[in-house]
Secretion protein HlyD
Amino acid sequence: MTQSEKKRTLFSAARNSKKKWLIAGLAVAVIAGGGVYGYKAFVTPEQAQAAFQVVTVQKGDVSETVLASGTVQASKRSSLSFSDAEDAKDSISTIQVKIGDQVKAGQVLATMDDSVAKIQVTNAQANLLSAQAKLEDAQKRKSTAEIASLQAAVTQAKSELELAKQNIDGKKATNDVAKAKAALENAQKTFDSQKALFAAGAISQTEYDNASDSLEQAKRDYNSATLTAGQTTSQSSVKVDQAEAAYQTAQEALKEANEGPDSATILAAKAAVEQAKAELQKAQKALNAVTLKAPMDGVIVQLNGNVGEIPGNDFIIMDNSNSGDLEVLAQISQSDIGKVKEGLPVSFTTSSYTDDTFTGKVKLIYPEAKTDSGVTSYDVLLSVANKDNKLKIGMTMNVTIELGTHKDVLYVPAAALQTQNGKDGVYLMAGERSGTAANATATAAQTETKTEAADKSQEKPRSERANRMASMPYHFTPIKIGFFAADRVEILEGLKEGDRVVIPVSTSTTSTSANSGNMRMGGSGFPGMGGGFPSGGGGVQMRGR
């Protein structure tokens, strides 16, 4: 397919817009298959001259565009729910918006019960403060006064330890036990003596009882002295142990103060702080989860729930359809998608606002093709500035993607572009010799061959065919085209500035005037060619985008 065939749509737009290159009302009736006979019978020489327009190859600017249609959509859309809440099965407490409300980012839209979540946040905050205080204490270095106080504590603990060791001496307790033992032995001897005398009847019962009582008392005194001595020793040992522990603690405190903060203690304190922070964040998230807020400026488009109900997914849906920044989703044909690039400027029109033109840019080209009824296209996402908030979601837009402009280049009217034997070209006036004259001559030979075959089938005399070819004031010239606009085509090769090119016009009007309405021939082309162009039999076609 040639470039001109791919651009048939744009050419049709050019014809419909009646650009200055096309002369409306000039036409000629050509009897299909009638050739020269039909032309001579129904077209006067003056009408034949009016059946085409001659234009000059010029220099100027040529802008190429891609035309499409698309639908307006929001550029941002958000579906909101309470799914992050720890207990998402709680019911809705409040709904603070309705469909159509315009909201600001951060605005509260709905809530669930938050009493438990608030308590958890308060507890987490207290734990964090405690951990931070411990870390601060661990990092603090003792002052000179504090170190002096610790030194004094060490001295005091040492003195108390020495005193405790002195008190552990059991001489007094030992003496008491020895005295009690001696008293017991004397009481025992006295009792034995009195017992013998009592048995001999030398003493009375009273004297015997007194001796017995004295012995029992001596035993009790001895036992008491022994017990007291043991208790004194045990208590003294405990006091010594306690004094030693206090002395060791005081020494360690003084050592830590002199050495500075302990790295391991600081690390542990820091870890505790981080843990407390994490717990607070978790509690805060749980609190936030029961309060649904707008993530952006926008408008509420769906509300799927009521107070007292358990909210589901997509509880509230909002978008930015009320903003000045919307999008248009357009479909670009396979033949044009290769030209479209992200960032290209775009203009839009719509039947809703015929006097307004909206602007934007190409945002995204989707890589996956879509095929509908055998036609392949690609989705392209376009930004559009919604001035005065006129555009509404779902509106159909006429899209013009501006591919670029080539300045000060050769061009001809779009209506002049033709296709012959699969090649793009124009009809050059007789006597013009472009840079591709040799190609034009070769093409003319091919045209003659096709015409000869057609004429033989129609049993045309060779003389008539020769006369017809000799009478044509133009010949087909292949060209290479660049940018293709609605009204003009850039010429890269095949023509030079000043060359004269022929543009055919519709034959229907001339047919009517020439034949007084009795004969209306179809086709579009130059006179004398049986409804086609000089190749005969319709072998040359006028092409457009």
Observations:
- Confidence is low (pLDDT under 50) at residues 6-43, 435-459, 507-542.
- Residues 205-259 form the longest helix (55 residues).
- The longest strand covers residues 353-372.
